[in-house]
């Protein structure tokens, strides 16, 4: 019995020692698993905490995203994205004047589907064809989107049937370009940022000297495309750009007030002489068609004109916001839609490219290119004063244009491609088309868009 007791005691001692060792090992393993779990659950954009002496990096398989885009100037943006998500590379698929739907179909047929795309036509058509994802569930769980503040109406023009079909790849602002040398030559000061449409017209007349080949306005369709419908909002004649009503279901282009706005701009050609018709501009060798020639006082431009102006203009130029009307001073901006494709094999990674657009580093990069910030953020507003793009220019005007910007509608309006507001306005302002044709054209389109809306699922 004594021998058995000794054996039992010895065995119990061994068990006790083993249990202590196992307990210690278990404790160490739990500590390691806790660190890995925290690393894997954290957002990819969440920084490691200072208490993590050896932060665990989540491992990912390399992913290449195919991005259909017109632009060949995003390489630096791709690098910023890759710094944030090192396992994801962006491969741009150039458009080269080919319809984007055809590009999507070609890549699908080859078994190498695209992941994200810029949009070149009605966004509804992409949705009805089942080509784009509803971004709502992605946005609702994304920390970047949930932590950002967006301008009023940010999703409105890209939402249809409660589905968010796109986000802005870029927010393209518009300003009035000003030839300051012509102002000085005519004894005029740079207008204030709260200038009015009367100021705009009066200064344009004072800058016009046909004998010298100098005119107040550049002969460009942008004046009717951008300024005319913005003035309609500024004077209370329309709720949205392109003469659309509040809920974007009908055009008010045929209303008496808007027709009077059209007559107002037409008088720059027929009465003031500060804007040349297409025929007159052609007869003078098309010199007045391009602001950079230095022969016109005002033009309308966006971020796309800035590189050429900064490099090649031989006169002093600046920018002003669109003028103030009777009730407000709206600006004009275009959202370039960016969508996640339903055929993508990497949807989660593809959405990271979408959400990355609204990080501070991406937004600052876009401001450096002359675009608007798409996020409401005091640091980004202040960044306009730091970017080399606007040094020496009217930065307050750029900030005001951003704050007051109204978003161009269209991509989620049924039958938008058949709404002939642009061609008829060009023909009236710069040609001899009868202004009264606006009325039947508008009535026909208003009927058509309601009919189309009723058929969409």
Automatic annotation (TrEMBL):
UniProt keyword Transferase present: no
Keywords, sorted A to Z: Signal, Transport
Entry GO terms, CC: cell envelope
UniProt signal peptide: 1-31
Biased composition (Low complexity): 30-53
InterPro entries recorded: Bact_solute-bd_prot1, SBP
Location relative to the cell: Cell envelope
Major location (coarse): other
Region (Disordered): 30-58
Family from the record: Belongs to the bacterial solute-binding protein 1 family.
Listed name of the protein: Sugar ABC transporter substrate-binding protein
